[in-house]
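Example 3.2
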Amino acid sequence: MRSLVVVSVMVLALFGGGCGTHPLVLNYDREPVPSKVDGTHYSIEEVRTAVLAACRKKGWSANLVQPGMIEASITIRSRHRAKIEIQFSSTHYTIQYRESSGLDYRNGRIHSNYNHWIAQLDAAIKNELGLRTQRF
């Protein structure tokens, strides 16, 4: 009986252990755009420029698809691809997952590298807007 329990645990570890080990997809919702040092607010054009510059610096290909919306994608080693949508205004921005391949997306969970890329992009946007953030 004891050997049956050991074998059952081993089977579960082999086949069930990988389920749910990926973190939830990281999205940034309504991140505030700070005021400038002189107290004035950024224009929507300045926010667009900051987001596009941050995308470029972090290796994302980004295009303005309509006012206030950028689609961006990244490909790593020709195997890992992610596509996101960045909505923005003069007061806030949102980074939203759209699709991916090679990143094991399933049921709202994804490979942790994706979340790392998104956290770095968010930090780069904040940096472009004059905020200093913790480096990841």
